[in-house]
Amino acid sequence: MKLKHNVQGNALAVSDEEPESPKPMPKSPDLGPPLAEVDIDPVTDLNEEVPFPSLAVEVIETLSISPARSLHTVEETISLPSTSSPIDNSSPSPVIDNSNGFTDIPKFSDSTQPSSSRSRPRAKVPLERGFTQVDWLRLTRTQTDLAGLNGATNRRFITKAEVKKHQSEDDAWTILKGRVYNITHYLKFHPGGADMLMKGAGKDCTLLFNKYHSWVNAEYLLEKCLVGVLDLES
User: Fold this and answer.
1) Residue ranges making up the domain that contains 214
2) Per-residue pLDDT tens listing for the chain (234 residues)
3) What is the C-alpha radius of gyration for the chain, rounded to an integer number of angstroms?
4) Is residue 141 part of a domain?
5) Which residues on neighbouring strands pair with residue 172, listed in sequence order?
6) How distant, in Å, are the alpha carbons of 137, 178, 179, 180 from that of 232?
7) Does the residue 73 lie in any domain?
8) CATH number, domain at 162?
9) Closest to 229 in 3D by CA, of 151, 140, 153
């Protein structure tokens, strides 16, 4: 070991061994051959179109479905009605009327119409001159005692036995909807004829009345012919 003196005169111990050499720096990993330098012109390259990968192609390729698979899925999802069941041909086919030269207007045969809808209206009997409904309304305004009450009130109860006594053309009473009317003067004014009206003389004609002309306001038409109210206990 050697002694050396510094500037201040102090002794310093110095080893005889040589100092170790510095360790070499670690090498950087091999990144492959260096990239080639590219000369980029900022003016000319702005005008050039840079190709980009088409995203639409990738999306279509990703979402593409086989046609056979999609049709098979639709058939499994939607159940179609079976066409193997026989068709009901019981309903009659329309009959085409060619009499007027047109073939596009179908008419159905009479067998399809219910029998109740083909009921024929009653034919009116020709009335004598001066015996129309207008003449009857005029008569009810001029005649005050068409019921033949002779001053008696029509607010009374009448039994069926009493009504039965009046069943002639000269003296005809009838029961209609719980009221008793003297129809003697109305016989010739009846549109269906006197014979039809006489079928209700002396009895209750409500069913017969509703069968042919239930829409007629009999209370107004025969107001001046009211005799009384039917006694329901009779």
Assistant:
1) 133-230
2) 555 555 455 555 545 555 556 666 666 555 555 554 545 554 444 444 545 444 444 444 444 444 444 444 444 444 444 444 445 555 555 444 554 444 444 444 444 444 444 434 555 666 678 899 999 999 999 998 999 999 999 999 999 999 999 999 999 999 999 999 999 999 999 999 999 999 999 999 999 999 998 999 999 999 999 999 999 987
3) 60
4) yes
5) 167
6) 31, 8, 10, 12
7) no
8) 3.10.120.10
9) 153
Q: 170 lies in a domain? A: yes
Read off the tokens for 22.
Answer: 């510095």
The answer as to whether 162 is a domain residue is yes
> In which element (H, E) is residue 207 found?
helix 206-213
CA angle 101-107-109, nearest 5°?
130
Closest CA to 123 of 28, 193, 19, 214: 193
